[in-house]
Amino acid sequence: MPDIEHILKEHPFFAGLPPAQGKLIAGCARNHMFNAGQYLFHEGEPANEFFVIRHGHVALEIVAPGQAPLVFATLGQGEIVGASWLVPPYRWTFDARAVELTRAIGIDAACLRGKCEADHDLGYAMMKRFLSVLVQRLHATRLQILDIYGKR
Amino acid sequence: MERSSATTAVISADALQGLIDALAARRYQVVGPTVRDGAIVNDTIAGVGDLPAGWTDRQEAGRYRLEQRADGALFGFAVGPQSWKRFLHPPVETLWTARKDDTGVTIAAVPKTNEKFAFIGVRACELHAIAIQDRVFCEGPYPDVAYAMRRRDAFIVAVNCGEAGGTCFCASMQTGPKAESGFDLALTELLDGDTHEFLVEVGSDAGSEVLAELSHRPASHAQLAAADAVVACTASRMGRSLSTDGLKELLQANPNHSRWDAIAERCLTCGNCTMVCPTCFCTTVEDHSDLTDASAERIRKWDSCFTMDFSFIHGGSVRKSTKARYRQWMTHKLANWIDQFGTSGCIGCGRCITWCPVGIDITEEAAAIRAAPQTAKGA
Amino acid sequence: MGAPPDPLIPQLYRVSRAQRELADTVTLELVPHDGARPAFQPGQFNMLYAFGIGEVAISLSGDPNDRRTFVHTVRDVGAVSGAIARLTTGATVGLRGPFGQGWPIARAEGADVVIVAGGLGLAPLRPAIYQVLGNRSRYGRVVILVGSRNPQDLLFRHELEQWRQRLDVDIGVTVDHADPEWRGNVGVVPALIPRAPFDPHDTVALICGPEIMMRFSANALRDAGVAADRIYLSMERNMKCAIGLCGHCQFGPDFICKDGPVMRYDRIAPILAVREI
Lengths: 152, 379, 277
What we know:
Chain A is α+β, with helices and mostly antiparallel strands. Chain A has helices at about 1-10, 20-25, 110-120, 120-145; strands at about 30-35, 40, 50-55, 55-60, 70-75, 80, 95-100, 100-110.
């Protein structure tokens, strides 16, 4: 799929990847379009696919009984939705909902995990990138839980 | 206080009464040292009889005792717990009063009193303390007008120290023991067997005028030499020393030094040091109103950076721990003050060492940090 | 022109308008009983006095070109601020000021301007925003990033929407959490900085909000390449006299009342990271 390979190459998350590795990843990828209000995945579902947002806006939510869902993060153009595919039991922890029309590349989790096991160079390149994203998200989340605007 | 040519004279100890009388006649409230409650404090004096004749002080970290001298020296002691700060920068002052009634609110300044002070016995270090507070209160964007008036109207009789205190380090801070400027008259006590007289140095026209009313005679070479010897002897017997080279940078660069934690184990945050320090100037304000909400006033009072409330912002105090509060005081005094006002805030009088209940000694603490800079806990 | 008023004595002002912004936040417009309102710089503050209760430092939040009123946005967080926040139209309040160093708006001319506001921090920045937008052609790109706890607590929401309608300003808004009705960003303000459209090599940044938010926003700006001497924070400490004589507002060697509240980041960066200073 040459145009997906091209799209992935242009995407900031994959910047600097050798073309051979880009090809490997493209082999696991396909196009998606989500309408406003459509869910990319729900909590508890198998984490089969993670998403690279080309454009649009996705909200991560948690549902609790008797309350409206609580949105705790939104992700936009250029960002990655989904980390639970990386670690067992490979199940989604939250809901992800498209806030507006969103186009994304979906990457098959099992496919990519298999390729990373077979090619450790690819595996290392992916882990480096994901780790950086996760660390940033961890820091941001820590700031968020401080509730710095709240009364003390 | 302009200095006229370095005029000197000698007066007898008895003539001191004439000096006090001349100042009282000019409507000065004459303030000088006197013994009370086991210490030498500054208070209104009527005459030479109120001075601490024959008394000296023994000062060490956390310790102050008066002792009888073998002679009758009038100024044979170092410094008492208080300086002249409480006259020039009063502990309590009403800033304004307000009234509220059907016609509205009015706020009015408090009329200035015309009190003027004559200080007898200001030490060289204390002259520097006064100059330091002059900079704080008069050289900022909003001068303290009441302070400036008290300063302008004050008459200062300095005394060159004949005794170095156990905790003194004016020599290190270059604030003494000789009074160089900032006085109207400066006295050096010369006591030799039966001879008891004072070398007088004139520091201003006002001083010259007052001296003219006293019986005096020119100073002989021997008397000038004796006065120099007194000061030299005092300078050689300092109880403490403080190295000030690079001290500002050292303290500002070491906010996490483990020594601060060690001090915090001892410090009671009692604030004695700030109360006795001649340069500490922090104040707070209190707003009072009566029960009918018809009148209100604002009072300014001495405050201390050691109180928990001092750094309070919504949510809590910035400096809660003892470590942070002690660090603030010492870093401000020896380092930040230089950035703020161009000189150290410390005059080397040793009061904070003497009057600390647990005997914390800033010269020792500064030396300890200097000996092991950048020591981090767990590093 | 008479002598300036004694900086220790509150001048009397009347509340000409009281507008509720949020459940605990009110904007007051004040006019002097006598004489003209003194001029002020964006970023400065006044000491507001509630009769018999006390004084509190509140930043000016109005347009400096409005020569008639002083505008203050007050949140009820204590005895004095609560009393001030509950004042109604016609009430009398005491006022000393304006005091302090303001935002360096003149220094930003010719450069991109990035304004980062967290929570109530948007209030002290609003006069700077008015001044920049009022002379828009003097600046490069103008970016305003606003963070809030949730959409209900967004300050000056109506004005944010108006500014967003302009074609020559980029507005980014984010909240710490929201319900699904919110279609905007959810996340912390520093996260908006990497993708904001400004040239980091020619930007002046003004930041105001809780100290944690200011520290992390300054870090994000530095990571993006903005010079430390072109980032400004509005600092806050205990304020009593507001004229540099009582010692309470010291932050390191600086007095927040006269060397601040607006402070340049490179000067304060070393002590921002020190606990309890």
